[in-house]
Design a protein that fits this description.
Elements (H helix, E strand, L loop, with lengths): L1 H14 L1 H5 L3 E8 L17 H8 L2 E7 L4 H10 L25 H7 L3 E7 L17 E5 L11 E4 L2 E4 L4 H15 L5 E10 L7 H7 L16 H27 L6 E7 L21 H4 E2 L1 E4 L8 E8 L3 H9 L15 H4 L11 E5 L2 E5 L3 E3 L5 E3 L15 H19 L17 E3 L6 E5 L4 E3 L3 E2 L9 E2 L7 E8 L3 E10 L8 E6 L2 E6 L28 E10 L2 E11 L7 E9 L2
Parallel strand pairs: 1-7, 1-8, 2-11, 3-4, 3-7, 16-21
Antiparallel strand pairs: 2-9, 2-10, 4-5, 5-6, 8-10, 12-13, 13-14, 14-15, 17-27, 18-21, 19-20, 21-26, 22-25, 22-27, 23-24, 23-26
Helix pairs in contact: 6-8, 7-8
């Protein structure tokens, strides 16, 4: 009987190991394109987000919290505690989203402290090893590494380096994986990162959520109401209610395993809203450096360590999250590069009476604005009193010229420090990043080369203006090329496949893959011409985004690559039909 009681006691202790060791777990929810006004806790009466709101009610709300105007930069700042230009992130696609390899991440720090680490959803800071999340401190990864994804239902997603076909809505599917991770690691401290895909376009919500919104009158309107597309607002809110339900599933799982008290739960978004919708009167949306483009909700709950229902009124930002979370957990940060962020612990615990004044800078596409606790200097040099005029309607340069001059000088100095006079190169100009793509690591032998990371040459073009989930089309001539810039780390034999479609009458082209002196030829056969998917969109897809289709994997063979840098070129030697094929990605696997 004593043995049974001992086993029972050990089991109870095992289920609360993070509490027993004093190490809190960490769950991070990161919304994609959700604006400050998209939550009922912010006062939006058109939407219900009770589970997300509960994080604020049970913890601390950062009332003036600033992120970047677009996705990848915010993620880099969250991961490193440093402004994103320092880490080489200058865009959102074509390799410009990659976080420099010298940067150390939040996951690196927690993993070094003995935590299990997993990420489940949108990564957006590099796809190939060692930019891949599993090389940046995460033990496992499931989701999509690019900026946005063209399939929200039954999507093909990456599982630890290999593509798998899923079933269900993408947010539900990724949350399922997060729940599995929590269950598997409930007896040790863990970091579970859940970067949601929504409400980023394409406008695709589960039917049950859309039905509640499709005919719903809008009672709260965008600051510029004439620019609001009402159905886009409805769809965004429908996607947020689905997301809220998934947050609730994770919170319930923590409670089920007795982990609720000693788990830090963080929720925030990566930029302002992706359409003109209610923001409480703020100016701007995603892509702008105005208040509405960079202010996000930020809620942090930790019952064992933070007060409930507390609001921090001082300005804060994504750069503050790494120093704050590592400090709260008692984890040493990885790396020694100077941080731009501050440890917010005193403010979170109702202290900080002597908290020093600060500035937070926002930049995108060559534009910079700066926020103080009371004012914002916008990218055109207009100064606004954000306390008296939160909508940025009336500049006060003439009334406060000294402050305007001080902030303009601060912006100039910040530009010089971040960009060294080359800021025009930052901001997602669409060009392929000059840094070559690493290939051939024994610890991660599979390297995917999606169309978004390659260069179309000749008549070849992308299937849409948004590269992230595009594919190469219009391959009709022998002069046409597809090129990926590589840095082959390991000389050896590589198995090569292509995810393709090809009109049935056009099958039979001979193609060549070349790198330095290495060559591989293959036939494009059989034909494979599926229809464009019709089960994805709640609303018509934006013109700049590709409609997707079911790609088939074509085995090209094995090529022996030398080590070194150079272009990997795919071209056609013979084209018996009207075109060669459409290409979504090449995959190269280093053989033993």
């Amino acid at each position: 009987m004593k043995f049974v009681l001992l086993c029972f006691a050990l089991a109870l202790l095992g289920g609360r190991s993070s509490a027993a060791t004093g190490k809190p777990n960490l769950v991070v929810f990161l919304a994609d394109d959700a604006g400050w006004g998209d939550f009922s806790h912010s006062g939006n009466t058109q939407v219900r987000t009770p589970h997300i709101d509960s994080i604020a009610r049970g913890g601390v709300s950062l009332d003036r919290f600033y992120v970047c105007p677009v996705c990848a930069p915010t993620r880099a700042e969250f991961l490193t505690g440093r402004y994103h230009p320092r880490g080489g992130v200058r865009g959102v696609s074509t390799g410009q989203e990659r976080l420099d390899l010298g940067e150390k991440t939040l996951a690196d720090a927690f993993k070094a402290a003995g935590y299990a680490t997993g990420a489940f959803g949108k990564w957006h800071n590099g796809s190939q090893w060692p930019y891949h999340p599993m090389a940046r401190g995460f033990d496992e990864y499931f989701g999509h590494s690019s900026g946005h994804w063209g399939e929200y239902f039954d999507a093909p997603l990456e599982e630890n380096g290999r593509m798998v076909r899923t079933r269900g809505y993408i947010v539900d599917v990724c949350t399922d994986r997060a729940l599995g991770f929590i269950g598997k690691n409930k007896d040790r401290p863990f970091v579970c990162f859940v970067p949601f895909t929504t409400p980023h376009s394409p406008w695709a919500a589960p039917a049950e959520d859309w039905q509640r919104f499709k005919d719903k009158p809008l009672t709260l309107r965008a600051t510029a109401p004439a620019a609001e597309a009402e159905d886009q607002t409805r769809c965004a809110l429908a996607m947020l209610e689905n997301q809220d339900r998934n947050v609730g599933r994770v919170l319930a799982k923590l409670k089920e395993h007795g982990l609720e008290d000693n788990t830090m739960v963080l929720y925030f978004s990566d930029n302002g809203p992706n359409s003109m919708r209610w923001t409480g009167g703020m100016k701007g949306k995603k892509g702008t450096t105005d208040e509405g483009g960079v202010r996000s909700v930020c809620y942090l709950r930790w019952p064992a360590g933070l007060p409930a229902g507390h609001t921090v009124t001082q300005i804060a930002g994504a750069i503050d999250l790494l120093p704050t979370l590592t400090s709260l957990a008692g984890v040493a940060r990885a790396g020694d590069r100077p941080l731009d962020g501050r440890d917010l612990t005193p403010l979170l615990r109702k202290g900080g009476d002597d908290w020093p004044e600060r500035m937070i800078f926002s930049t995108w596409a060559g534009k910079v604005s700066v926020r103080t606790g009371t004012h914002r200097l916008d990218d055109a040099g207009r100064l606004y009193d954000m306390t008296a005029d939160p909508g940025q309607t009336t500049p006060v340069n003439d009334r406060q010229p000294a402050l305007a001059a001080e902030l303009a000088a601060a912006v100039k100095a910040w530009r010089a420090e971040m960009f060294g006079g080359k800021e025009k190169a930052h901001g997602g100009d669409g060009s392929v990043d000059p840094r070559p793509i690493p290939l051939g690591y024994r610890e991660f032998p599979v390297t995917m080369l999606p169309a978004r990371d390659g260069e179309p040459r000749g008549a070849v073009k992308r299937s849409s203006g948004a590269p992230n989930c595009s594919y190469f089309v219009n391959w009709t001539r022998r002069e046409d090329r597809m090129v990926w810039r590589l840095d082959v780390q390991t000389a050896g034999r590589y198995e090569v496949t292509a995810d393709y479609t090809c009109k049935l009458p056009d099958a039979g082209s001979t193609i060549e893959l070349a790198f330095q002196d290495a060559r591989l030829t293959a036939k494009v056969t059989p034909g494979w011409d599926p229809p464009l998917l019709d089960n994805q969109d709640t609303l018509p897809r934006p013109a700049g985004e590709s409609r997707m289709k079911e790609f088939r994997t074509l085995k090209l063979g094995v090529i022996t690559l030398p080590a070194g840098k150079g272009p990997l070129t795919l071209r056609a030697l013979d084209i018996p039909g009207g075109s060669v094929m459409d290409v979504r990605r090449l995959t190269l696997t280093l053989l033993p």
